[in-house]
Design a protein that fits this description.
This protein is α/β, with parallel strands linked by helices and 256 residues long. It has helices at residues 4-14, 17-28, 33-36, 42-54, 62-76, 103-107, 125-134, 147-151, 161-167, 208-212, 224-241, and strands spanning 81-87, 97-98, 112-117, 140-145, 172-176, 191-194, 198-202, 216-222, 242-244. It folds into two domains: 4-76, no CATH class; 81-244, Endonuclease Chain A (Endonuclease, Chain A, 2-Layer Sandwich).
Length: 256
């Protein structure tokens, strides 16, 4: 039988910093355990509930539970580091990182990559790095893309949403969908979150021009709580603004 102290340590290892923060915030606001646990992914809720119960935590011990969750949040935190990420033609940028080098960060992902962009171009080094990472079973890849930018005017140099889902075979791909009023939101958020640890927010699309020719500016932010908060916010928007993209099936005359 797991001792309460061990369960607290297990809870701290299991929750992300942003999950601990949001659980603490909701419980402090008077929500029930079921209401508060909505901030945790569906597949992780039962285990979180079990760890809280074993540790003697929950709404019945609200003040203690909030204090423990705040401690878990703090344990995951570290000083935020911010680095500019530039693009400019002709090697004019001499300081900070360059957008063209970010693909090394994506390629080095160990756990997860979450990406949101307006469009992809096959010439992009970031597209190539994402394709390689999505093929690795140990890395969870989640992609958000604009339907109109990818599908409205098909071109061989840019993948459609179906092609994105198919070529990034191991990824979960979402595209913007029409709302009940007929309007379709524009997915213009451009960021990459890697290993729930650092976040690149950028003006650049996944294109060769954005990586080599344009003047683009982004920020690499090393802050796991902020990074996980952005990931969680995108997941919360999925039900209202996005739809999962099916992968291309075999040709109609295929026997596969």
């Amino acid at each position: 039988m797991t001792a309460p102290g061990d369960a607290v340590r297990d809870l701290a290892a299991y929750l992300t910093g942003s999950e601990a923060k949001e659980l603490a915030d909701r419980l402090a606001d008077g929500e029930t355990a079921s209401q508060a646990l909505r901030v945790v992914g569906r597949a992780r809720r039962d285990q979180t509930r079990r760890l809280l119960r074993t540790a003697g935590l929950g709404p019945a011990e609200r003040d203690l539970t909030v204090a423990v969750l705040r401690a878990v949040e703090g344990a995951h935190a570290h000083p935020t580091a911010i680095t500019p990420v530039w693009t400019a033609p002709g090697g004019l940028i001499q300081a900070g990182q360059l957008t063209a080098s970010v693909h090394h960060l994506v390629s080095a992902a160990r756990q997860s990559v979450v990406c949101s962009t307006y469009n992809f171009q096959r010439s992009s080094t970031l597209w190539k790095a994402l394709s390689e990472v999505a093929a690795r079973a140990e890395v969870n890849v989640r992609v958000y893309v604009d339907s109109d930018a990818a599908d409205a005017r098909p071109e061989p140099w840019k993948p459609s949403t179906r092609e994105i889902a198919t070529e990034l075979a191991g990824a979960v791909v979402f595209r913007t969908r029409a709302r009940p009023d007929g309007d379709r939101p524009r997915n213009h958020a451009k960021f990459i979150a890697i290993d729930h640890q650092f976040l690149l927010v950028t003006s650049a699309n996944f294109s060769k021009s954005a990586e080599q020719l344009n003047v683009e500016l982004g920020l690499r932010i090393d802050d796991p709580i902020l990074t996980q908060g952005v990931e969680n916010q995108m997941r919360a928007l999925e039900a209202d603004l996005y739809e999962p993209v099916p992968k291309e099936g075999p040709p109609a005359n295929s026997t596969a």
